[in-house]
Design brief:
Strand content: 5-15%
Largest sheet: 5 strands, mixed
Strand order of the largest sheet: 5-4-3-6-7
Distance between the termini: 67 Å
Structural class: alpha/beta
Number of strands: 7
């Protein structure tokens, strides 16, 4: 039931104040609705792409009808508009080729009976798919006995990733990547395998995931040491629903991501990502994760990070993408010219970054000092001046205050060539979690959350180093059981990258 409205005041100033407050509330509600619609239905550009696709289909249909009409009437004076033919790319050269030759059924000329000679040939290619197949590997170890002393000689049993388990490293890697990279829950995988006549219960697959995570734990810790040994980190977090035992509902847990990636500033240090799981979002978790870290932390404005900056060992670098997003939402919802101007000014800063991406830190710092810092000073002055002209309760005023309160951290990148303008590096690392969350809905326990963090760390680090995650996990699962623990760094993605490059990529 709608709430009852209070009587309108009779005095003009009070009436104007009431109207102004109502206009602000309406604007805020419109902004909230726009945000929710963008979250659920996608960005306007994505919807526009779909609309254009529908228009193209309609145009193609019109062209087809025009062509049919022209064929029926040879006297048509207006030629139909020819449909646009897509440009077909050649099939990849690295794929294996099988040749099927189709010879004429006749062996002599059908007209005169004379002998036929080869004149040439027409060649066409099409792409085919060979489904993956299960296979059983039989390990046979003959026993040999000495005829003189009856000593028995036999080769030792080869190691398996899971002792006495049925799964080889290839199958384990496939299950892990299907779940944590391709976002297929275990029950769906079980159904898929059943179609091939292989019964693998969901509980069995879950046991394999747990055993694999335990086996790979030392490698995850090696990635953690590498990531936290950086001088600059990107950090972010996202929610992960976790089943609450005995309650029949979920609670909101978190996955934290920490990314080391300095390639945009020409660093040759290998990139990597480490994930951590927690049952809540209290600030004690990032404080524990980064207890020994010293350097620059690029993150959003989450208050849980604040204590990390107090003693000066960690410097805060804020994210301009978060600032830009707030103005973008207002510009889309309210068509605000002030929000549009803020976006244009921020866009000029990003244009500078596009010119120096991949340059060494010294070059980036010099360009930012020459071109970026004057724009930052102008933007800061414009924000302060604009704020005085707005209602302090408006969404635009809130967006401006968000930027001004964090200005020192936002401007830090301009004086340090190692720092990025935004925290998109961490946000990209979390995309896999967001996609997976839509499919598996929740993790079953704290142990399940920690397994997910471990697998996201390994798969994410493999992808950052240009590796096929399944090939990487297959490689390490086949070796880690017998690998010396004090040489675990030899199995890090960038240490095995050369051995895992496919031949077609090396040739390219």
């Amino acid at each position: 039931m709608p709430r009852a409205l209070s009587p309108l005041p009779d005095e003009v100033p009070a009436l104007k104040a009431r109207i102004s407050a109502m206009e602000q509330e309406i604007a805020l509600l419109k902004l909230t609705i726009a945000k929710l619609q963008r979250t659920q239905f996608g960005r306007r550009a994505e919807r526009l792409d779909g609309h254009l696709a529908q228009l193209q289909l309609a145009l193609d249909a019109l062209n087809e009808r025009a062509t049919e009409a022209a064929a029926a009437d040879d006297t048509a004076s207006v030629p139909p508009v020819a449909p646009r033919q897509p440009v077909r790319k050649p099939l990849p050269a690295h794929l294996p080729r099988e040749t099927e030759e189709h010879r004429p059924e006749v062996c002599s000329c059908p007209s005169c009976g004379g002998a036929l000679k080869r004149l040439g040939e027409d060649v066409a290619e099409h792409l085919e798919f060979v489904p993956a197949r299960f296979r059983v590997i039989r390990t046979v170890r003959p026993k040999l006995a000495c005829r003189r002393c009856e000593t028995i000689v036999q080769s030792p049993a080869p190691g398996r990733p899971i002792g006495r388990g049925l799964a080889g490293e290839g199958l384990l890697a496939h299950v892990l990547v299907a779940k944590y990279c391709d976002h297929l829950p275990l029950y769906r995988q079980s159904d898929m395998y059943a179609r091939d006549g292989v019964e693998l219960a969901r509980a069995t697959l879950a046991d394999w995931v747990g055993e694999s995570a335990h086996l790979l734990a030392p490698l995850v810790q090696a990635i953690r040491r590498h990531v936290l040994g950086a001088e600059k980190l990107h950090a972010d977090d996202t929610l992960v629903p976790m089943l609450a035992p005995g309650q029949g509902k979920t609670q909101t847990a978190r996955l934290w991501t920490y990314v080391r990636d300095d390639r945009p500033s020409a660093s040759v240090t290998p990139p990597a990502v480490w994930f951590a799981f927690s049952e809540n979002r209290r600030g004690e978790h990032p404080q524990a994760h980064l207890k020994h870290f010293q350097g620059v932390l690029q993150a959003d404005g989450y208050a849980g990070f604040d204590r990390l900056y107090q003693d000066g060992a960690i410097q805060e670098a804020a994210c301009w993408a978060h600032v830009r997003r707030k103005f973008y939402d207002i510009a889309q919802a309210q068509a605000s010219p002030l929000a549009a101007e803020a976006l244009a000014r921020i866009g000029a800063l990003y244009a500078i970054e596009a010119d120096i991406r991949g340059a060494p830190p010294e070059r980036r710092r010099a360009v930012r000092r020459e071109r970026g810092q004057p724009l930052l000073a102008q933007l800061h002055a414009w924000l302060e001046a604009t704020l005085t002209q707005l209602s302090q309760k408006s969404a635009l005023a809130e967006a401006i205050r968000y930027a001004l309160v964090r200005w020192v951290a936002l401007a830090r990148y301009a004086k340090d060539g190692r720092i990025e303008i935004d925290n998109n590096t961490a946000e990209r690392a979390l995309r896999a979690v967001a996609l997976g969350r839509k499919n598996y809905l929740f993790v079953g326990s704290r142990a399940g959350g920690e397994r997910a963090a471990a697998m996201y760390s390994l798969i994410g680090s493999a992808r950052l180093n240009g590796l096929d995650p399944e090939a990487y996990l297959r490689h390490v699962l086949g070796r880690i059981g017998e690998h010396p623990i004090n040489r675990i760094d030899e199995l890090l993605p960038w240490r095995v990258a050369a051995a895992l490059q496919p031949p077609w990529r090396e040739a390219a």
